[in-house]
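Hi all, posting the design record for the shared folder.

TITLE: backbone redesign
STEP: 1 of 1
STRUCTURE INPUT:
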């Protein structure tokens, strides 16, 4: 029989290894937080002084003291107004079909693999696709619609995968109870499955839209202007977005424009915080019900 002393001798190396890796992972976490803290400190110290009503209402200018972010802010709202309904409708609809209606065979497995692979494709590839199809083939130009369709293709795989996982997580007992009450398959999906899956769908959707709102590479490939002094009035108008305006200011050598870029980053962060806060409120509401 193994006595207590032998057990302690055998456990001692394992405990040392466990302590080492625990400290290593803690250091890695603290390093990431430290870098993030330094980045946020630098952004806020440089940009908070320029963040005022004039900055939000003024048009871009070659003079830093007169430059504003209004066209980029309005353009970002226009872009998200196109991307959000397209991605949510197509993404959730595709997830419902694959999980609830499609038969499990090689063809659906092939589709699943390709959707997962598309989620990892570099964003610039989607920019080239949008340039070829939407800007040139469909002659949409550098419009809100062309950019919105391109960014929708970029984030659509993420929303599909997240929606599928959310639908899979709905307990089978809920479905069976619905069928037992005489509900049809579609009624069960709409009234039982989707409400229960909304928290997971929203989580994936907000993460995907957050990626779309901050991407620059596809928009650069599409040829969006870096300097625009008017507001879009429809989805067919030329426009610019916050990441493009920030990219333009960071390329200027003057320190004043670097500070304007920091102020633009703060505005972009606030938009992301608002989006995530709305998603959290909706998730909490449905968590209480289901």
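Okay, here is what came back for every position:
SEQUENCE:
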């Amino acid at each position: 029989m193994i006595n207590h002393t032998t057990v302690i001798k055998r456990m001692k190396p394992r405990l040392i290894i466990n302590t080492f890796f625990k400290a290593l992972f803690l250091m890695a976490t603290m390093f990431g937080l430290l870098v993030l803290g330094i980045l946020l400190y630098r952004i806020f110290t440089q940009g908070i002084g320029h963040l005022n009503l004039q900055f939000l209402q003024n048009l871009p200018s070659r003079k830093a003291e007169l430059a504003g972010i209004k066209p980029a802010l309005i353009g970002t709202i226009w872009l998200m107004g196109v991307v959000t309904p397209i991605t949510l409708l197509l993404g959730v609809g595709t997830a419902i079909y694959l999980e609830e209606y499609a038969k499990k065979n090689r063809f659906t497995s092939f589709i699943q693999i390709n959707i997962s692979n598309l989620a990892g494709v570099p964003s610039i590839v989607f920019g080239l696709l949008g340039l070829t199809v939407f800007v040139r083939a469909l002659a949409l130009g550098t419009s809100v619609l062309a950019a919105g369709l391109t960014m929708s293709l970029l984030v659509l795989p993420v929303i599909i995968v997240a929606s599928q996982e959310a639908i899979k997580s709905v307990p089978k007992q809920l479905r069976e109870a619905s069928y037992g009450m005489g509900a049809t398959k579609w009624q069960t999906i709409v009234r039982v499955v989707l409400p229960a899956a909304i928290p997971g769908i929203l989580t994936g959707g907000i993460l995907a839209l957050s990626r779309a709102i901050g991407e620059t590479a596809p928009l650069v490939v599409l040829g969006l202007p870096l300097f625009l002094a008017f507001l879009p009035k429809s989805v067919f108008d030329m426009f610019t977005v916050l990441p493009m305006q920030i990219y333009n200011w960071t390329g200027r050598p003057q320190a004043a424009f670097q500070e304007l870029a920091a102020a633009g980053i703060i505005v972009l962060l606030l938009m992301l915080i608002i989006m995530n806060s709305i998603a959290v409120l909706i998730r909490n509401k449905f968590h209480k019900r289901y």
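COMMENT: The chain has a mean pLDDT of 85.
Let me know if anyone wants the other runs.
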